[in-house]
């Protein structure tokens, strides 16, 4: 190869190298900037379950205080998940209306009247002491009966089946007195002929057996009825007689012990109950038991306090002696037995009566 040819070849190679080196570089794919993370919205706290708790009792009565205590403890122990709102002294409903309000859920909870529940369930009227008025030995006899698990089971089922309510507790109301505007009751014969307000079928039957003329009135109507002479007498607890000033128009008061203890029912609408979690239900149940024990002790203290107050305020305050109390039982026992058999049926009537006798 001559020198001239070699130069040509070198020139060609150099040109190729230059062309290759001058090829444009492929542009790099653009990198998308990182998208900012979406801000996480803080979770809103769940709204509290609001439950209305209503009663129909006088200010400062043990059942009003028990309802207030139950509210405070449940609200605190549930960490705000349950908010119980209190309505006191018949602010929402009267005693008859409250039962139906809780049944349909227009009120979540109620402290239900001992006697008017009996209009829906004779078994419950018996369990609350009213259905067996005149035949209890004393408060210990009644409490032994009430604390029997079988009795509690009957009460639970009656509320479930007949009132669409769950029974949380049976709270002591206290004892009862018979107050008259006309004359003191010192013997069984003194009941004769007095027109007396009686609450519920069983109490009306018991007093009718003793010779009174029963009149169906709500407690809120009693004061005026005594003033106008519509009635001459009535029965309620000593605390209510004192706190509502009934002794002003019915100054002759007898502690007759036909019901050594009465009890009211703390209940909740079934549908409202099902909305609660198992943990919330446990809080409600445990608190109800705790307040039950407190109410029983407080009711005992209140009976003594208000009886002493009435001894000073009323014209007369009388304790029937043992012989007169025995006469009451002799008169009313067969009648009250027939009544529970008729109203609750033979099977339930016998069951309740036997449990009451076993508790003596």
Tell me the strand percentage band: 15-25%
Distance between the termini: 141 Å
The domain tally reads 1
Whole-number mean pLDDT: 89
Structural class: alpha/beta
The CATH architecture comes to 3-Layer(aba) Sandwich
Biggest β-sheet description: 6 strands, mixed
Q: How many helices does DSSP assign?
A: 13
What is the name of the CATH superfamily? Bacterial extracellular solute-binding protein, family 7
Total beta strands: 11
Order of SSEs, N→C? HEHEHEHHHEEEHEHEHEEHHEHH
- Spatial strand order of the main sheet: 7-6-8-5-9-11
Provide the CATH topology. D-Maltodextrin-Binding Protein, domain 2
Radius of gyration (CA) equals 38 Å
Q: What is the overall shape?
A: globular
Q: Unreliable runs, pLDDT <50, ≥5 residues?
A: none
CATH class: Alpha Beta
Helix-residue proportion: 40-55%
Topology:
Elements: H1 3-21, E1 49-54, H2 62-77, E2 82-87, H3 95-104, E3 109-112, H4 122-127, H5 139-146, H6 149-163, E4 165-174, E5 177-180, E6 195-197, H7 200-209, E7 213-215, H8 222-228, E8 233-236, H9 238-243, E9 252-255, E10 262-269, H10 270-274, H11 278-313, E11 316-319, H12 322-344, H13 346-358
Parallel strand pairs: 1-2, 1-3, 6-7, 6-8, 9-11
Antiparallel strand pairs: 3-10, 4-10, 5-8, 5-9
Helix pairs in contact: 2-11, 7-12, 12-13
Describe this structure in words.
With 360 residues, the protein is of the alpha/beta class. It has helices spanning 3-21, 62-77, 95-104, 122-127, 139-146, 149-163, 200-209, 222-228, 238-243, 270-274, 278-313, 322-344, 346-358; strands spanning 49-54, 82-87, 109-112, 165-174, 177-180, 195-197, 213-215, 233-236, 252-255, 262-269, 316-319. The chain has a single domain (49-358), classed as Bacterial extracellular solute-binding protein, family 7 (D-Maltodextrin-Binding Protein, domain 2, 3-Layer(aba) Sandwich), CATH 3.40.190. It has 13 helices and 11 strands. Strands 7-6-8-5-9-11 form a 6-stranded mixed β-sheet, with helices on both faces.
């Amino acid at each position: 190869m001559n020198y001239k040819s070699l130069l040509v070849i070198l020139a060609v190679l150099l040109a190729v190298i230059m062309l290759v080196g001058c090829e444009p570089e492929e542009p790099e794919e653009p990198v998308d900037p990182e998208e900012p993370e979406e801000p996480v919205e803080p979770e809103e706290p769940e709204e509290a379950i609001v439950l209305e708790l209503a009663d129909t009792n006088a200010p400062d009565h043990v059942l009003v205080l028990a309802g207030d205590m139950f509210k405070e403890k449940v609200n605190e122990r549930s960490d705000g998940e349950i908010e119980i709102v209190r309505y006191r002294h018949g602010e929402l409903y009267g005693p008859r209306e409250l039962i139906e309000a809780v049944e349909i859920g227009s009120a979540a909870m109620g402290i239900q009247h001992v006697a008017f529940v009996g209009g829906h369930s004779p078994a419950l009227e018996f369990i609350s002491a009213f259905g067996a008025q005149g035949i209890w030995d004393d408060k210990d006899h009644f409490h032994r009966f009430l604390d029997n698990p079988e009795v509690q089971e009957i009460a639970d089922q009656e509320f479930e089946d007949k009132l669409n309510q769950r029974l949380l507790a049976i709270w002591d109301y206290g004892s009862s007195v018979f107050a008259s505007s006309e004359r003191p009751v010192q013997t069984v014969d003194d009941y004769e002929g007095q027109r007396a307000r009686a609450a519920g079928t069983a109490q009306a039957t018991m007093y009718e057996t003793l010779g009174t003329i029963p009149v169906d009135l709500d407690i809120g109507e009693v004061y005026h009825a005594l003033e106008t002479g519509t009635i001459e007498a009535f029965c309620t607890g000593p605390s209510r007689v004192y706190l509502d000033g009934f002794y002003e128009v019915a100054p002759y008061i007898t502690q007759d012990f036909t019901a050594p203890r009465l009890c009211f029912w703390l209940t909740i609408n079934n549908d409202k109950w099902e909305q609660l979690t198992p943990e919330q239900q446990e809080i409600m149940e445990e608190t109800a038991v705790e307040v039950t024990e407190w109410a029983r002790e407080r009711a005992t203290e209140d009976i003594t306090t208000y009886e002493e107050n009435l001894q000073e305020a009323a014209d007369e305050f009388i304790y029937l002696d043992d012989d007169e109390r025995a006469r009451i039982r002799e008169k009313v026992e067969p009648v009250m037995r027939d009544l529970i058999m008729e109203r609750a049926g033979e099977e339930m009537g016998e069951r309740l009566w036997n449990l009451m006798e076993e508790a003596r």
